[in-house]
Specification:
The protein is of the alpha+beta class. It is built from 15 helices and 19 strands. Helix 9 (270-280) runs parallel beside helix 10.
Length: 514
């Protein structure tokens, strides 16, 4: 059967299949465009809601990292289901503190805005407090060293004292920053530290009046025989310029040899320690090394500039830490300068303080440092070339001036008082912690010498005078300083002068006063 053909004049239609295909393509395009528009609109609304909505703000900013999922879950659970309202900022600060504490590193710390502000005060020109460097060790806040002439030093606070309470509140387990927040305060206010020292069986309370602590870090004096004694108490922003000034002044007074003293110096700024080290080390020789995780040590070399050309010794002790140890290692290993005293504290790490957007601060250990010979002294310290101990009386504990020690009293405080008076050459009888007749006579003689009311009872002003006299004796008969002076005089070829008679000393004092 023949196919029928359309008659002429009729419009020719495309085959049915072709017509349906064209119709479907039109509808698909429109549908796809509609879907795209809907997706864009939905995405815009979602971003707006998540960005400006209160409840979902955390999810927008949350990094898609699987290890944080547990943290977010814990945060949401506490925020939504804890039986009381929770401060979100405290939760976040607590989480960061927990991460830092898990490092087990006493030198790493997270500080909120208020704590960070106090941290920055420590490297400024002054701050208000008691004037002592502290550190957390094995769960206890430990004194590294008191600042020279500070309320803490005057109250008898010593390196390695453990502070177990502040104003009666236990601080065991506190971070260094948390403890400092309690100890510091306004000038003129009191704070009571409960102290454990050495082998003491019972703690003692030490009440200290806070004061402004000026950060004057260099003290210098001529100590006879053309030898200068220059003490550096910490490494702050101005320490290097202070030291240069002190050296120039001592030169004007005839200095031919020098004893640098970093005893009870807890450290400070790394750059300050390097600038000072550079004074004593020949150009091109190594000062110290810094080694970050997974990297080769970065070596710091001495540069050109002013150099100290006269003989020098360096005094160190258990309170010499961090930047003090950098200086000691550099001077000993790269300049053959003798170290005199006791083994140093042993802090061989470097911290970086990172300011966060809200004013808080994350300070953590970023590297370890090595001496020029590649030694890591962390928790080991640096041994002196010439070991000299402090006399026993230099580490006697503080006596509470509010109590009365008198005939018939039996206590550890009496034993301490007996040792103090004996060190000052008073006859106390047997040192046994029992206040008896000979002790009464010794106290009366001491009170008479000090022009105090003679009662034979130790309390108040008598106790303060006793501790002041002992501190003066420690400074006058400093065995470490005397040994360091002797060694540097031998190196410089200086002959010891004859000791002054009392008359000569009085004449010298009169001339100085004029």
């Amino acid at each position: 059967m023949d196919d029928k053909r359309p008659e002429e004049g009729n419009e020719q239609l495309p085959p049915a299949e072709e017509s349906r295909g064209h119709y479907i393509r039109l509808k698909t395009f429109s549908f796809i465009m509609l879907v795209v528009v809907l997706i864009l609109a939905t995405a815009g609304l979602t971003v707006f809601a998540l960005t400006f909505g209160d409840e979902k703000a955390v999810e927008v900013n949350s990094p898609e990292r699987r290890e944080f999922q547990k943290l977010y879950t814990a945060y949401d659970e506490i925020q939504n289901n804890y039986y009381e309202d929770v401060d979100r900022e405290e939760l976040i600060n607590g989480a960061i503190n927990g991460m830092v504490d898990s490092l087990g590193d006493p030198y790493s710390d997270y500080m909120n805005e208020e704590e960070a502000s106090q941290f920055l005060e420590g490297i400024s020109s002054s701050f208000e407090g008691i004037g002592a460097e502290v550190q957390e060790r094995n769960g206890y806040i430990t004194i590294v060293s008191p600042i020279k002439n500070s309320p803490a030093e005057k109250a008898g606070i010593q390196p390695n004292d453990q502070v177990i309470a502040v104003d009666g509140e236990s601080i065991q387990g506190f971070s260094t920053t948390e403890a400092v927040m309690l100890i510091r305060g306004e000038k003129g206010t009191e704070v009571t530290l409960t102290i454990m020292r050495g082998d003491m069986q019972d703690p003692i309370d030490v009440t200290i009046v806070r004061d402004e602590i000026p950060i004057e870090t260099v003290y210098s004096e001529m100590i006879g025989d053309n030898v200068a004694h220059i003490q550096i108490t910490s490494f702050s922003q101005d320490t290097f310029s202070e030291l240069e000034t002190a050296i120039a002044e001592m030169k004007d007074e005839g200095m031919e040899a020098m004893v640098i003293d970093v005893r009870q110096n807890p450290g400070g700024l790394l750059q300050s320690a390097l600038d000072i080290s550079n004074l004593f080390i020949e150009e091109g020789k190594e000062m110290f090394e810094v080694q970050a995780k997974g990297q080769d040590p970065e070596i710091y070399l001495a540069t050109d500039g002013n150099k100290v050309e006269i003989p020098v010794t360096l005094l160190i002790d258990g309170g010499s830490a961090s930047a003090s140890e950098i200086l000691a290692g550099a001077m000993s290993e790269s300049a053959d300068i003798k170290l005199v005293g006791e083994k140093t504290f042993g802090k061989g790490t470097v911290q970086t303080a990172n300011d966060l957007a809200d004013g808080s601060n994350l300070k953590f250990t970023t590297a370890k440092w090595l001496t020029p010979d590649g030694n890591w002294i962390h928790e080991k310290g640096i041994e002196p070339d010439v070991a000299v101990d402090y006399p026993e009386y230099a580490s006697l504990p503080f006596i509470d001036a509010s109590i009365e020690l008198k005939d018939g009293t039996i206590s550890e405080q009496v034993r301490t008082a007996e040792k103090m008076l004996e060190a000052l050459e008073y006859e106390v009888g047997e040192v046994d912690g029992v206040f008896e007749e000979e002790m009464t006579q010794a106290v009366e003689a001491f009170q008479e010498d000090q022009e105090l009311e003679v009662t034979g009872i130790l309390t108040g002003d008598s106790i303060y005078a006793l501790m002041d006299e002992l501190r003066a004796k420690i400074e006058e008969e400093d065995p470490m300083l005397l040994e360091a002076k002797k060694l540097v005089m031998e190196e410089a070829g200086i002959e010891a002068s004859e000791p002054e008679t009392d008359e000569e000393a009085e004449e010298a004092e009169e001339e100085s006063a004029e």
